[in-house]
Amino acid sequence: MSPDDAGGGPGLSLRSVALFEVALPLVRPFRTSFGEETNKRAILVRVDGGDVAGWGECVASEEPRYSEEWLAGSWLALQTIFGPALLDAPLADARAVGERLRWVRGHRMAKAAVEAAVLDATLRRLGRSLADELGAVRDRVPCGVSVGIAATVGAMIEEIHGYLGHGYRRVKLKIEPGRDIDVIRAVREALPDTPLSVDANGAYRLSDAPVFEALDEMGLVMIEQPLDHEDLVEHAALQWRLRTPICLDESIRSARDAAAAIELEACRVINIKPGRVGGVLEAKRIHDVCLKQGMPVWIGGMLETGVGRAANLALAALPGVTMPGDTSASDRYFAEDLTVPFVLAPDGTMAVPTGPGLGVEPRPERLEACTVRRAVVTRSS
Ligand code: OSB
Ligand code: MG
Q1: pTM
Q2: Pairing mode, strands 269-272 and 246-248
């Protein structure tokens, strides 16, 4: 199969699209340069194809800070646009989801959720795993962990020691103006040999280049999204001044963006997240562009439940993914996941799901306990 053939087999005629808004307490608050989350909220999408069902997760946050999308907006888009569009006519395969929704500008996280659900359903019918469908080359993937901004440097170092004890192979630290050089220097002194990276979530300006020049001396694996998500040219200017690779996250919304970033030399690493780019199929296209151009990639995360995590792990098994992802274990996020828990092995790797489709699904009693709102879109509605 050629790489672009991934899309999942014969046609699917859907009966309904069900939406579940879920809320799961995080084991500890997650603070970034744009705010703090204590509760993980997400929309789970279930498509019912009669003989088979499929699940997807929409990673839009409660507020439109990471991107324009936010949970309430995604809910409306799913309920009034995407659900009805999927039910309108049979879908030849999961690629048809993107084609049918091509007229919708943006709303990538909502699109990604419905595409994942259709892909899950079609692959379940074929008995094929998502990892196989995408072209996975490994059955375990190395994992890193993303650490939120903590109240004190001491608390941050303690938290990191805990993660390293579990086996995580790379530690990503969130930074923001005023909590950067000193914090990272202290962590680097406490952990001289740990692969460390930082993620600014776009909180700096090019005039802050001296901050990054100071960080450039600390042997970081990469500096993620230092500047505004809309400015590739400024990232290129900053990358010229640094030895440390810049990694783009928010700036890369499509394979087209990835090609532009490569052309402009705006970064030396790309973080791929299926939600941010409109689905696993576009994520695979970005992977393919980067592999061809020699651009290293890794798979990011959005604090997903097990449903979204399963898709991230399948992508992490692709050949061009050469760095550990933010694909952490369930217990890094939740006391109890929606699905069977994803577990980190002591060597810092996690198994790629091998079952049909995503290979996992929400446990009914856990979904029931976490659901705070539901809606069903049917053909007549
Ligand atoms: O910028 O990578 C990010 C979480 C939510 C929104 C944005 C980001 C993150 C993370 C956590 O860094 C990654 C994870 O563990 O899922
Ligand atoms: Mg990021």
Answers
A1: 0.96
A2: parallel
- Measured in Å, residue 369 CA sits from the centre of ligand 1 at 25
Structure tokens at 331: 């217990």
> Distance (Å, rounded) from C-alpha 93 to C-alpha 277?
19
Share of the chain above pLDDT 90, in %: 95
Domain membership of residue 189 (yes or no) is yes
Question: What pLDDT shows up at residue 10?
Answer: 59
pLDDT class for 70, splitting at 50, 70, 90? very high
Buried b (16+ CB within 10 A) or exposed e, 177-193: eebbbebbeebbeeeee
358 within domain boundaries: no
Domain count, the chain: 2
Residue 276 lies in a domain: yes
In short, whether 327's Cβ falls inside 6 Å of ligand 1 is: no
Within 294-363, residue ranges assigned H as helices are 306-316, 330-333
Decide whether any atom of ligand 1 lies within 6 Å of the 303 Cβ.
yes
Q: Which residue has the tokens 């309108």?
A: 88
Helix (H, G, I), strand (E, B) or coil at 229: coil
- On the CB side of 242, CA atoms within 13 Å amount to 33
What are residue 37's DSSP bridge partners? 30
* Residue closest to 164 by CA, chosen among 181, 134, 135, 187: 187
Whether 321 contacts 299, CB under 8 Å: yes
Instruction: Looking at the CA of residue 172, tell me the nearest atom of ligand 1.
Output: 12
Of 172, 273, 284, 292, which residue is the catalytic one?
A: 273
pLDDT at 322 over 70: yes
How many C-beta neighbours within 10 Å does residue 288 have? 18
